[in-house]
Amino acid sequence: KNQVEQSPQSLIILEGKNCTLQCNYTVSPFSNLRWYKQDTGRGPVSLTIMTFSENTKSNGRYTATLDADTKQSSLHITASQLSDSASYICVVRSLAGNNRKLIWGLGTSLAVNP
Amino acid sequence: GAVVSQHPSRVICKSGTSVKIECRSLDFQATTMFWYRQFPKQSLMLMATSNEGSKATYEQGVEKDKFLINHASLTLSTLTVTSAHPEDSSFYICSARLREGLYEQFFGPGTRLTVL
Fold it and tell me: Does the CB of A93 have a partner CB in chain B at under 8 Å?
């Protein structure tokens, strides 16, 4: 069964600290993996998209890694800011059946405190 | 990046009425748009895929007669919740997909529907 699991479910850190969010998936066949940031009451915003051949990709203070062999990804946030408080969702695109299938994780809720 | 807008951002209606939500891609053409529903503390759930000029494809369990989708142009898709009931109260999010490359989806800001 295609699944995307994220950990931790929630996380509280102090402003300025770094953190790493985890994503494990069992989606096959794999197309790409995406990390989204979703603020409360808003739509998701794309942070990174990674294909099979990419191991790491950065977007400002966000760095995503992908290990396609172990089917794991991480999102590292550096020097956190209060505005980083949001839900971070890992999404994997599958090529099975119709090619529009996105498998969504439940997200990690991050709170950055002053 | 590509921008997707939704209107209205928030709507409150009485049970039994119909509500229309618009989704627009502002700076690109989207042959495919998606409609999602999100309940509190849950993932986005795909409701239907809307292709310009053709009928929408609904996910299993989503009533096509209740959630009417129209994708009349390359920049506009609408979702109409017909005869809304309190259980339809949710956060509705649309997205539009680029045709090229990684088929990245860009999401609208969402519409909060509350049915009294």
Answer: yes
Residue type at position B1: G
Whole-angstrom distance, CA of residue B9 vs CA of residue B5: 9
What Å distances lie between residue A9 and A53, A74, A91, A106, CA to CA?
Answer: 28, 14, 15, 8
Residue A55 dihedral angles phi and psi, to the nearest 5°: -95, -30
Q: A49: which chain B residues are within 8 Å (Cβ-Cβ)?
A: 102, 104
Chain B contact set for A99 (CB, 8 A): 103
Instruction: Give the residue, B68 or A2, on which the prediction is more confident.
Output: B68
Mean pLDDT value across residues B28-53? 90
In the prediction, which pLDDT does A19 show?
A: 98
Determine the Cα–Cα distance for residues B115 and B13; give it in Å rounded to an integer.
5
Q: Which residues of chain A have pLDDT under 70?
A: 96-100
Cβ atoms of residues B22 and B33 within 8 Å: no
Q: Residue A98 has what pLDDT? A: 55
For tokens 């979702």, the residue is B79
Using an 8 Å Cβ cutoff, are A102 and B93 in contact?
no
Contacts of A37 (CB under 8 A, 6+ apart): A44, A45, A47, A86, A87, A88, A89
Query: Residue B32: is its pLDDT beyond 80?
Result: yes
Cα B71 from Cα A83, distance rounded (Å) = 35
For B17, what's the count of Cα atoms within 13 Å in the CB-facing half-sphere?
Answer: 12
| pLDDT at residue B99 greater than cutoff 80 | no
